[in-house]
Amino acid sequence: MHPQGPFCGGESSGIWREVSVGGGIYTLRESRSTPQKGVKMEEETNMLRDGSLIDLCGATLLFRSAEGLMKSPTKRHLEQKIEELNAGRPQCPVGLNTLVIATRATLSHADKQPYVYLNCGHVQGLHSWGLQDHCPDARECPMCFKIGPIVKLCMGIEPAFYVDSEPPTYAFNPCGHMASEKTVKYWALVPIPHGTNGMLAACPFCAIPLRGYPGYVRLIFQDHVD
């Protein structure tokens, strides 16, 4: 699947096609096991371009060109965005402790680890306020009183998946990987082949299928409430 327009900028994803052994481009079959080919697309090319996706029977690969990667953020740039966010000293409104976002989930201290309420986007520390007896996985947000699941926040640190270099202000639902608004919204609309004939949007950092609509949430930190 080729992106429509440049990958950097996050215009929109394209349409999946089947490529024959000889390089011909066809529309998708009704299912992978169907022997009948789709319609041949004479005017489409099999040449990869920046942002093309290749599905190899369940393993989906992203192709990035050298020119495209030059327009993408570096790992150090992403780390600086997290440092800037941490410099704002976001706080948990319940525990009143400062939260620290780590670039890796295994590096954060438990008492400083931020969590996001997936139904509203409020970011807080881990506490027992709002626990639901009938549903142990759900909590009531003390800021807006919406009830829903929470998940640990972690920065998506693979630069090749980013379509711009903006700050990480959104997170995927349900995994909690953070990225820029355009990056999250781009991947939330990319259909990834699943099973024999299904398509699912997934987090590019961990491949977990997105949950609900729209599959992401805008992050609301205590120091950035608007």
Could you walk me through the main structural features you see in this protein, from its secondary elements to its overall organization?
The protein is α+β, with helices and mostly antiparallel strands and 226 residues long. The protein has 2 domains: 71 residues, no CATH class; 153 residues, no CATH class. It is 12% helix and 21% strand. The protein has 3 helices and 15 strands. The strands form 5 sheets. The protein has a 5-stranded antiparallel β-sheet with strand order 6-5-9-8-7, with no helix packed on it. Strands 10-12-11-15 form a 4-stranded mixed β-sheet. Strand 13 and strand 14 form a beta hairpin. The mean pLDDT is 90.
Topology:
Layout: E1 18-19, E2 25-26, E3 53-56, E4 59-62, H1 66-70, H2 75-87, E5 115-117, E6 123-124, E7 131-132, E8 135-140, E9 147-152, E10 154-155, E11 170-172, E12 177-179, H3 181-188, E13 192-194, E14 198-200, E15 216-218
Parallel strand pairs: 10-12
Antiparallel strand pairs: 1-2, 3-4, 5-6, 5-9, 7-8, 8-9, 11-12, 11-15, 13-14
Number of strands: 15
Average pLDDT taken over every residue = 90
Helix content: 10-25%
Main sheet strand line-up: 6-5-9-8-7
Describe this protein with a few key phrases.
2 domains; 12% helix; 21% strand; alpha+beta; five-stranded antiparallel sheet; globular; 226 residues; 15 strands; four-stranded mixed sheet
Brief sketch in words of this structure:
GO terms for molecular function: ubiquitin protein ligase activity. This protein is of the alpha+beta class and 226 residues long. It contains three helices and 15 strands.
